[in-house]
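seq as requested:
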Amino acid sequence: MDAKFLRLKHSAGLDFEAYLATDPGRTAQWREKCKLLSLDNEQRALLQSFTRRMPVICLSGTWCGDCAVQCPMLVAIATASPAIDLVFLDRDEHADLSDQVRIAGGKRVPTVLWMSEEFEFVHLFGDRTLSRYRRMAATQLGTTTGPACPLPSITTPASESATVLAEWIAEFERVQLILRLSPRLRQKHGD
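struct tokens:
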């Protein structure tokens, strides 16, 4: 993916409120998930320490239970750091991008793309964190029961939400460190 394409996609993205407004029937369920989230002081301090600008695109679907759980986490993370410029794109409306970032051959959501300040591709992550996949594997491979992909209205246990949030924060930190340690960016910024 070239930087010009990613810049155009990012500029077409919506902030969280505008994204939710595209499907008002599901807004209440997503907002409920937002109310249940909180960053601890250590997480907030880490995110506030970021210095490199990170444009971020989240490909999502308002119909998706995993998105309803995880996208509010992305918003909480981005809100805590002025360096993070997060936008949302509907996966199906932006097939030209979602076709390029298939995971195991499928158009998964949420899929998150991180870029440098010049919109150079840095990292791709989707559609679930490790703990979400562990829970899903336990469900689908026979050790527990429950839905493979929850509906947006399903409540996620607080302990699982805290773990998933920490895993997403780790991905943002990973990208920030890639950007901070980039020889090209260090030369550009004189640090």
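The first strand starts at residue 54 and ends at 60.
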